[in-house]
Amino acid sequence: MMDTVLDVLSWIFLLGGAIFLLVGAIGALRFPDFYTRLHAVSVCDTMGAGLVLVGLMLQGGLSLVTVKLLLMFYFMMFTGPTAVHALAEAAMQSKLKPVVDEREP
Amino acid sequence: MSKLQHAINLGLFLFALWVLLSGHYTPLMLLFGVLSTLFVVFLATRADLIDRETQPILIKLSVLFYWVWLGREIIKSNIDVTRRILSPGLPISPTVFTVRAGQKTELGRVTYANSITLVPGTVTMDVDKDVFTVHALTREAAADLKRGEMNRRVCNVEIVF
Amino acid sequence: MSELLGHFNYWIVIILMMTGFYIVIARPNLIKKIIGLFIFQTSVFILFISMAKIEGGTAPIIEEGISVYSNPLPHVLILTAIVVSLATTALGLALVVRIREAYGTINEDDIHVQDEED
Amino acid sequence: MEHLVDIVLLGLLMITGFAIVRMRSLLAAAMLTSIYSLLSASLFVVLDAVDVALTEAAIGAGISTILLLATVALTTDEEKAPRHTPLLPLVVVIATGAALIYGTLDMPHYGDPAAPIHQYVAPTYLHDTPGVIGVPNVVTSVLASYRGYDTLGEVTVIFTAGVGVMVLLGYRLRRCNITGPGIRNLIVLRVIAKLFFPLILLFALYVLLHGDYGPGGGFQAGVVFATGFILYALAFGLGNAQRLIPRKLLRIMVAVGMLIYAAVGIESMLLGGKFLEYRVLADDPVTGQRLGIMLIELGVGIAVASVVLIIYYAFVSRHCQAPEDM
Amino acid sequence: MYIAVTIAILIAIALGLVRAFRGPTLYDRIMAGNMIGTLTVLMVAVLGFMTGRPEFLDIALVYVLISFVSTIAVLRVYIIRGTMDSSSTGSGKE
Asked: Predicted ipTM?
């Protein structure tokens, strides 16, 4: 019984993660300029990756596999934003202008 | 804390990591674990990296609370960004603005900067001492950040570091 | 149909190989040539690893309860070949850097012109 | 279902290959090469070659791209159009490709267990490894024990290439102020690098010492170890990295790595065996084998890590040296 | 079920490739490379579970570390000289 619940839960997480990964990739295509595309990549890096890893952890159960997945999650939460920040900063330093919404709010 | 204490902490953390990664608990493998840990701590000392920031023990309770709060924020803004990506009109209003970080230490500031980037909808573009240049996907996300709740929360956990 | 799928891997590998080969012989830019060689090399790696695969097999790390393993020998050859490819690519790129310093260009056509003038 | 993944990945690889041909900007081509390498690494996982996948990811997607970009930065980005029409090369390529495809028709099917390649030595290796060598990872046992000569040769090639790069590019770092766009403000990177530098090094040692049990070994560990130092150099500057590991030490370490390998071979000759016959190294043949494998993996790891770092230093210090030629 | 996730990841990789081809700036391509790196890590992890040998997560862990270091290195090593190609100094708008 418990196993089935865990299984179903992990499938929900995995599929949710897959959907967010797809959405992030679509965003990276649809958004108009480099800086806005970074936000789409963030969706992939946080929610997509996070949900897939949590789904796999539920499949792994209490074992070293789960520990490694947890470690991956931990690494990704540090490396992801650092890489995105580095990209944004390098782009800004090379005078790549962001598209800004000029309309009055 | 003294430098020695920091080195010992790092060593203990690395050894725990080794044990968790390894999965082979013969005396030989554990001995290798000890040797590897000592070697890495030696290199880190030589690289002059041993100080408070190398301490990956951010497992204090209040930090954990911060992470839970941050997780909730991330989920909320993810759903928001997802809605915007999928809606046909692409309702975004990108803005660039600056915020002031109230943290005293480098580690605190970096935590704040990375938290901003981690939440989809806002990306830290530049860190100049305590002034961050931030790019936001929408005006709402920008207004949300300017309210300064995240800044306050990072300041609160910073004391624990 | 099975005839088609049976060699699919090899055919794609050959297309990749020819892509790399084309870059090497048709493009005068030396860096592009090295990229072409890189593509060529990688396609050879894929060819070897495809040959090692056995239907229903798994990675050649012995474990209780598993009886079919893929062939480990090509893995060994390719593993070392990858590291060697890094070393040779680096050597090639170092040569490109020096050629640029000596000739002021990395375009093969221009280099030939300069050589003829001398 | 693995077939589907395999086919899709190959398709993506093909598209990437064609895109690389068409790209005029060398930088774009280099970035696509990195993606190409990542895709082929995941293809290796699908094809059960986990050790190879580990190596390809560490080398193809990492170091190779860095070197390509460093070279582009030192030379030029734009590729001039070729002077000749690409007709003749196209004919040659299509003819060669057709001949090769005709050749594949006689090859055994993909995944066929009855293919000749699976009939001779491979079953012996798979069958004997647990008993004779005593390690579960057959790739490691073949690499380090059965085909130890080959590997010694490969390490020699790497060593020679490292020496070649050193001779071609020189190895003296001239200090200079780095200007221009880029990541100028390094606090975020520095704090993260402080956290990750020890972790990457420990992970490299883990990969080295667990090569017997899972994917990993000297080659992969060497590259990951060097990557740790590259991260350090990126965050704290090449000067600091060279204070941490001086060039002189690196030059010695390359030789030491090679010598450890060769010394294991000679030691086994002195103990009455043949060159690289590890079973004489200890009283129990299996222990001897494991000891021998461990030592030569260590030698390989040291040599590879030093060569990769030497190459990185050589290319990046060249950057600082010649600001006037742009 | 794992196959569904794998297919989703493969589609996402294909979309990332489109971004890498179209550019238009170098940064877009680096970003696409970084995204494909993340997707590859996840695919390797899922494939490990699919083939029933999840202990190969070591590979995925190495990918995480390498793809991070190479993204940073690409930004630092190339852009040090300040030689940007002309296309990347534009507005970045398509």
From this structure: 0.90
